Amino acid sequence: MALRSNPLRVYVALTIGVFFSSGFLTFAAGSGISSGSASGLLQPYDLLYYMGVRAYFFEEWDKAAEHIEKSISIRQALLRTRRKCHDECLSAGDGILSYLETQTGDLWDLYALDWVQRRAECARFCVGRAVAPAGQLPVSADIDYEFGTRNAYNFLQLTYFKLNKMTKAASAAHTFFVTNPSHLEMRNNIEKYRRMEEVSEDAFVDREKELERHWEVYDSAVQAESSSDWKRAVEQWKDCVNVTLQQMEECRAQCAMASKTLPEDEAPERTGGVYEKAAALSLSLLACHQSCVSLVATRPGRVSSQEDFLPTQLEHLHIAQFKAGDLRGAIQTLRSLLLFYPSDADSLNNLQLYSETLGGDADASDLVPSQEISRYVKRSLQEKKLIYFGVEHLNFTFTDPDLWTPEDIVPESLREKWRAERERLSGTPTEEEEETDDSGFYAGGPVPQVGVTITMDDVKLNGTNRVVLDGVLTQEECDAILQLASSATSVADSSRGRRSPYTPHERFEGLTVLRALKLAQDGMVNQSDARLLHEIGERARVLLHSYFRSPTGLFFAFSHLVCRSPIPGHQEGRMDLSHPVHVDNCILEPETKQCWREAPAFTHRDLSGILYLNEDFEGGEFFFTKRDAKTVTARIQPKCGRLVGFSSGPVNPHGVTAVTSGRRCALPVWFTKETHHRDMEREEAEALWAADGQSVLKEGEKKDGEGAQPAARQGRSQASQGRSKEARREIRRDEL
Ligand SMILES: O=C(O)CCC(=O)C(=O)O
Ligand SMILES: [Fe+2]
User: Fold this and answer.
1) Which of 117, 269, 576, 698 is at a distance of 20 to 30 A from 288, taking alpha carbons?
2) Cα–ligand 1 centroid distance for 452 (angstroms)
């Protein structure tokens, strides 16, 4: 599992550390919390999860499986309970509704917010009957993240593998992979499970499928549509709308109990008195409801939601109904769609067309919008109205997830503010925005190594914070590293490498410093070559740190020697890239030119470098583009000793053209300014060398005179002493 760059690995280890030192787990174990429901009430699932993870790190596999499974099932039971309570409390506080009809102005808002609270209280009381008090407390953001990213299944996968329960391991692997599709190691693990005789195809089930059912229906609706099977498309789209509405309810049901704090810590002028605090609670509950729009519209493993999710489905549905000859259905669907966009010209035209085709029958009373959609839109508008009241008067912040919200829901004063903001922004040319880099790097510093030259700078590379340096390695050094790559590959796998994660037409071999060291310890590769691999990375670090005038220390975030080679027989008519255009620390959306700095991107990477080792291959050219991922701004042909460096952010989208013959080897290096994101695997290698009496750091210092980096060096050596054990644990977790 390539979790080395995932903050979570650190998190798991740290959490365990904290628990140990506070004696919390000892207390928990002593107090007999070993099952989910000793008292008949649901116990806190987060505690069980921690216990499971602890057992995992102690390699107590049976216990790990038991606790983690229990925490998953208790969490699911908790979600079900909340849903049941949500449904039971739908009418709570409805007495207040009659006041609402008669009140206006601030009093209306007061009553409305009170009504929101009554419902939430009812739900909390109801949940209290089934869940132990500790289980009712909001879980920490870390636990939310663990379950949100399905990391529990990541642990379960290896746990079951160790227990030799391959079917369960495969199912856990698949479940994790659904939300982590770029997880290279899990993909490889899944391939291994597929090759196992005892694992049948049925094993690859998504254990969390219930929550994603609407996507399954969505995809089959699209499929029916693309094969022009209109009758089936109608059924599937109808189903999709219904399931989406249900998922929305599931999601909203969790809000009454979701983590939420009274804004006590905020400045008094912001939170005011009791009324403001109570209002803030109700508002955050409403905002939580609204956020379900985006959550439900985000596919597992994606970061951005599908905009206008429900209206889009209605759009598809009415077209399918029209094609299938169900004009009455089409009219009804269009009327539902018009609830979202009442003045949409296309919908109105279509409505007219359908009505004319149908003759005078179109106004029949049964052709009204669907009740569910009417209720959905009405409720959403009510919520938005209240929320915008809070935005206007109570400093509440809210990002509306919908595109269809009518203007008049937003108070005039807010609209005025937004207009001014838009005008201010529209004066800024987008091109200019593209070129600003807030990384803190500033290209043009000195290059502190004899023989290294600056071949291309920002001007020649048409961009910001980019450089090409030559002469970083000698030919002998390149040859030694290439030899290391070959030896490591022939040891690792007789089929010479795995399929590339970026293209099916290439193989991809990766070698980290730690792996090289271990191979050297086993006598499979030269010890001196393994050390050279470490040392040249360090050389790149010192050069780039200096050239980009980094204001802080730079730590290795990750690095591995990578060779790419074409798979014979898969080369004809290749249109793909060896590495598609991407940005190293965010997810590039070329259509909008946005770059999302969020998982699964390696968001902590700040500076990137690629140190090339050879040129005897075809293709494999490195190129920079603009944010559209199309306009190439510079091209660089790899060769021995050439180092491309650039800041890892959105000013530097880049890619690699297809490697069509030969074998292209390079050492990508990524650096972070944040010490806690540094690469612990690399540190473990350093610690092992140090324990062997071979001071790698000293050698690095001699070579590049990196006296200017005390922070980095200190960080590394401290970590070598204190954290190598954790690092080893983490690595174990990655391997099958
Ligand atoms: O190999 C190269 O030239 C670039 C690789 C790259 O961009 C990456 O691994 O992120
Ligand atoms: Fe990259």
Assistant:
1) 269
2) 21
Place of tokens 């210092």: 701
Question: With b meaning 16 or more CB within 10 Å and e meaning fewer, what string describes 636-653?
Answer: bebebbbbbbbbbbbbbb
**Candidates 562, 579, 588: which one to mutate for ligand 1, based on the most atoms within 8 Å of Cβ?**
579
For 38-76, the DSSP string reads TTSSBPPHHHHHHHHHHHHHTT-HHHHHHHHHHHHHHHH
Ligand 1 atom at minimum distance from 584 CA: 10
pTM of the full structure: 0.55
User: What does the pLDDT look like over 68-88, one tens digit per residue?
Assistant: 999 999 999 998 888 888 888
The ipTM (two decimal places) reads: 0.99
Catalytic residue of the set 83, 664, 716, 729:
664
Q: Which residues contact 427 (CB under 8 A, 6 or more apart)?
A: none
Active site residue 664: yes
Residue 174 has pLDDT above 90, yes or no: yes
pLDDT band at 606 (very low <50, low <70, confident <90, very high): very high
For residue 664, give the ligand nearest its CA: 1
Mean pLDDT of 45-64: 94
**Which bound ligand lies closest to the C-alpha atom of 502?**
1
pLDDT in tens, 226-248: 889 999 999 999 999 999 999 99
CA of 268 to the centre of ligand 1 (A): 50
Cβ atoms of residues 260 and 370 within 8 Å:
no
What letter does residue 409 receive in the DSSP assignment? G
C-alpha span between 683 and 689 (Å, rounded) = 10
Q: Decide: helix, strand or coil at residue 17.
A: helix
Residue 638 CA to ligand 1 center (angstroms) comes to: 11
CA–CA separation, 384 vs 316, rounded Å?
Answer: 26
Ligand nearest to the CA of 656: 1
Q: Average pLDDT of 317-339?
A: 93
Domains of the chain (ranges; CATH) run 3-209 (no CATH), 213-426 (no CATH), 453-567+575-677 (2.60.120.620)
Atom of ligand 1 nearest to the CA of 664: 1
Q: Are strands 622-625 and 632-636 parallel, antiparallel or unpaired?
A: antiparallel
For the segment 599-603, the average pLDDT, to the nearest whole number, is 84
